[in-house]
Structures are given as C-alpha cells and as structure tokens.
C-alpha cells in the first residue's frame, strides 16, 4: 500500500484480520495452508500472529465506492482460498468459542510469545486498521495530535467481540480489553512535531521492553511502511458496510485534522481519552459514550452524530456524506457486530458455534 492524496480525496487502505473457522464454528489453525496455496485472484493474504487468522489489505483507493468494492472482493477472495482447506472466514474480533491459539512459526512471533507470556498466547484477536494518506510526517503528527478525542466513537461503531472463551464478556469489544495488555497500546499525548514523535518511539525502543517498531501499538500512529496515518482502534467489522463506514469516517477525521493543523491542539488528558475508549469498548452503541465536546456521558447516537458533524465539511468535499448517512442508517437499523452476535446467540439458545457460523455468512454479504 502506498498513500498519496488524489484530487480532494485522500487515498485509503483497509487492512482486515479475519478468523478461520471450521464447520462447527471453532477456529482452525490453517493460515499457513490457506496462504500457501492462495491464487492471485484470491487477493493479498498475509499471516497474522496466530494460525487461526489471516489478514487482507486493499490497495490505496480514493473513491468510497471503490473502497467498498475492494473490501468485499478481499473477503470473497479470502473465502475462496479458505475453501481449499475446508475452512470459512469470519469477521469476528474474538472467537465466541474457547480456543487455544496457535502461534505462527516465525521468529518474531515466537519471540513475542516467549517474551510476553499469556498476553501473547491470548492474542487471537482481529482488528481493522485504516491507513489514510498524509503528505509527510509533519502533517501526520498534526493529525495524530487532533484525532484522539474522536477515536472512541469509531471503536463503538466497530465493536464486534462480545464473547471471550465461550462466555459473554459483558463488553461490546472485549478485543479492546485484551489488546490493552500490550505495553504500547492505547491513546497518546500530543507530540507537536515529527521529531518529538520519533523521539517517543525511539525512547520506547530504548527501554528494551518491545521487540521492534512494529510493536508500537498506539491507537493511531504514523505507519512505519507507508506515508499514512494508521488508525488501529477498531475491531474487525462484521459487515463490509460497517468497514466502509469506518474507512469513510477515518478519512474524514484525518482530513478535518489536517485542515486544522495551524489551530491549537485539544488539551485532553490521557486519562480521559483512555476512559472514553474503555466506555466505548464496554457498551459499544448500546449505552452512553463520552461526548468529546463536553467529556460527559451522552447517548451513543448523539455522540456518533457529533462525530459526523465534526467531519461534515470533509465528507461533503470528498462526496462521501450521502454514502455515510446511508451506511449509518443501515448500522442503526441492524446494529453493530456485538449486538448482532448477541441476538444470534438468543436465537440459537446459546449455541456460540452457531453464532460463529452466522458471522461467517454475514462476512460475505
């Protein structure tokens, strides 16, 4: 993926981590086989930390319709590759059924498993990472310093991991809880300059705690590989429509922040940002979120509306507002992944394998 703005719309690339499940809904460790026999028509498939998951990535695209089509094409291609090994893909951020994940046999992953113990062994979690093009590191840092207050609503929209090891976690995104165990995860302070950002990364490396720059797990970061801001806060979305919505709103946030680069940065304490993210992971769209305009509780519908208002000018200029409005309507009518999984569990009398299989069906819609 590369990222350069095209016209008035910045390019966007979407990376999705997907579970591989068997016909009973339980995760199966077949990533090596699936990736090893993939055809060019299956799209780009890569390993993640566990053998029970694979990752897809769209190319950098400017038109939201093209982004939506690429997300669907990647999911279809990944399923074609999985079909050869009697597996299904499921856009689930955690497995509803208990699983002991199988670490991919690569030196870096094995080193992480040895160094981080249970934190690494329990990292069968799947996220969605949105790369949005920026001109350079200076613009990227200006963006990072301004989007933090609005990342929690993105988590709430995407929340798709209510179950953990066979039980209801009482969270909409339990992936966010599991992910928060890593030492570099979560929100960041304002950096001000690229030099300060890179000094912070170098300082973390100098502690000897993390293995490499790939373990800078900030909720949003400068990509180490591409000229992009990488927004990493979201669960993998059950619906391709929700993934498209996430991409549009992430781009709107980046564009809005870049336009405000000469204005003062928001002075929000890290503890408030962390609490806002915790609340978003706890209730998703089913309860109150913290409103970034006041830092007081407000209904999720109102906070998401405030997010859209915040990025409205950018959405209008990129031609995305009508599409975003339509996708939000679909989301409010059908619910996010967490609410849909719980509804399916009720319909299936608590059979979480059936929930995983329903999710596999929904992944390809």
Please, could you describe this protein's structure?
This protein has a single domain, classed as Creatine Kinase, Chain A, domain 2. The chain has helices at 31-36, 64-83, 107-116, 118-121, 137-147, 151-158, 174-179, 194-206, 240-259, 270-283, 300-318, 321-334, 337-347, 352-363, and strands spanning 12-21, 45-47, 53-57, 88-90, 127-133, 163-164, 167-168, 220-222, 228-235, 288-291, 296-299. Helices cover 46% and strands 14% of the residues. With 365 residues, the protein is α+β, with helices and mostly antiparallel strands. It catalyses: L-cysteine + L-glutamate + ATP = gamma-L-glutamyl-L-cysteine + ADP + phosphate + H(+).
Question: What is the CA–CA distance across the termini?
Answer: 25 Å
Which topology does CATH recognise?
A: Creatine Kinase, Chain A, domain 2
Q: How many H/I helices?
A: 14
Most strands sheet = 7 strands, antiparallel
- pLDDT < 50 runs, ≥5 residues: 1-7
Q: How many strand elements? A: 11
Mean pLDDT: 96
Main structural class:
alpha+beta
- What proportion of the residues form beta strands (DSSP E)? 5-15%
Count of domain modules: 1
SSE pattern: EHEEHEHHEHHEEHHEEHHEEHHHH
Overall CATH class: Alpha Beta
Shape: globular
C-alpha Rg, in Å? 19 Å
CATH architecture grouping: 2-Layer Sandwich
Helix content: 40-55%
Notable characteristics:
365 residues; 14% strand; two-stranded antiparallel ribbon; Creatine Kinase, Chain A, domain 2; seven-stranded antiparallel β-sheet; alpha+beta
């Amino acid at each position: 993926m590369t990222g350069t703005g095209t016209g008035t719309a910045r390019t966007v690339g979407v990376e999705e981590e997907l579970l591989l499940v068997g016909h009973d809904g339980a995760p199966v460790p077949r990533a090596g086989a699936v990736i090893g026999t993939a055809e060019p028509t299956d799209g780009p498939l890569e390993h993640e930390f566990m053998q029970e998951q694979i990752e897809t990535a769209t190319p950098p695209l400017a038109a939201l319709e093209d982004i939506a089509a690429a997300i669907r094409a990647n999911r279809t291609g990944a399923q074609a590759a999985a079909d050869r090994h009697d597996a299904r893909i499921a856009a689930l951020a955690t497995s509803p059924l208990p699983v002991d994940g199988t670490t991919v046999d690569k030196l870096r992953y094995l080193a992480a498993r040895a160094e981080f113990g249970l934190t690494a062994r329990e990292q069968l979690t799947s996220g969605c990472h949105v790369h949005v093009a920026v001109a350079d590191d200076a613009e990227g840092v200006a963006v990072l310093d301004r989007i933090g207050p609005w990342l929690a609503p993105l988590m709430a929209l995407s929340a798709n991991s209510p179950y953990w090891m066979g039980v209801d976690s009482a969270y909409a995104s339990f992936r966010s809880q599991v992910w928060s165990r890593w030492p570099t995860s979560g929100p960041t302070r304002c950096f001000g300059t690229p030099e300060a950002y890179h000094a912070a990364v170098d300082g973390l490396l100098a502690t000897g705690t993390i293995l490499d720059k790939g373990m800078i797990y900030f909720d949003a970061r400068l990509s180490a590989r591409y000229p992009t801001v990488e927004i990493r806060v979201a669960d993998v979305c059950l619906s391709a429509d929700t993934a498209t919505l996430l991409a549009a709103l992430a781009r709107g946030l980046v564009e809005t922040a870049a336009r405000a680069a000469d204005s003062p940065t928001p002075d929000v304490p890290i503890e408030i940002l962390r609490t806002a993210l915790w609340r978003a992971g706890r209730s998703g769209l089913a309860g109150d979120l913290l409103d970034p305009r006041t830092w007081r509780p407000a209904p999720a519908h109102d906070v998401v509306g405030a997010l859209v208002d915040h990025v409205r000018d950018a959405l209008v200029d990129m031609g995305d507002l009508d599409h975003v409005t339509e996708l939000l309507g679909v989301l409010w009518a059908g619910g996010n992944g967490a609410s849909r999984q719980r509804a399916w569990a009720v319909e299936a009398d608590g059979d979480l394998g059936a929930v995983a299989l329903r999710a596999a069906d929904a992944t390809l819609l």
